[in-house]
Write a structure and sequence with these properties.
The protein is of the alpha/beta class. Helix content is 38%, strand content 18%. The chain contains five helices and five strands. The chain is globular.
Length: 149
């Protein structure tokens, strides 16, 4: 799948899908999960990577985590990664700039970051210096990173 870039009020979005790594069966159809250790570890790994590149850490945002959770649940319900509804999430955030990455099928939180590092648009989203707050949420095999500035 080709990464997508949304340029809506300077927003950037990326998508990552790794074939064959998704959970099977009912796990993809789970409802949005509250912030959990997996999501917290994704954000911690992302902030560690940002720090290693001289970019300030992102503060966790309950509001953005809620938007990310809604999107992860929607992807799980459709059993496919997407950026459907990005413009609406962006508008609901009230921010001037938002970035979004999604992933499917990672078993280890830190590997999500490794996967995103390998795709230029995802990498740029992770290191966007103008975003300051972020939400990360997982539903089944689907993860959403949504950050705004």
């Amino acid at each position: 799948m080709t990464p997508i870039r949304h340029l809506h009020r300077a927003a950037i979005a990326g998508v990552l899908m790794l074939a064959g790594l998704a959970s099977s069966g009912g796990a993809d159809a789970l409802a949005a999960e509250p912030p959990d250790e997996f999501s917290e570890r994704v954000l911690a790994a992302l902030n560690g990577y940002r720090a290693s590149r001289g970019v300030p850490a992102l503060a966790p945002s309950p509001a953005l985590s809620s938007l990310a959770a809604e999107h992860s649940a929607a992807m799980a319900a459709r059993a496919r990664p997407s950026h459907d509804g990005f413009a609406q999430r962006f508008e609901r955030s009230g921010a001037d700039l938002c970035v979004e990455n999604v992933a499917r099928g990672f078993k280890v939180p830190e590997q999500v970051i490794v996967g995103w590092r390998g795709v230029p648009t995802h990498h740029a989203n992770m290191l966007e210096p103008k975003v300051r707050v972020a939400g990360v949420a997982r539903s089944g095999a689907y993860v959403t990173f949504f950050a705004c500035g």
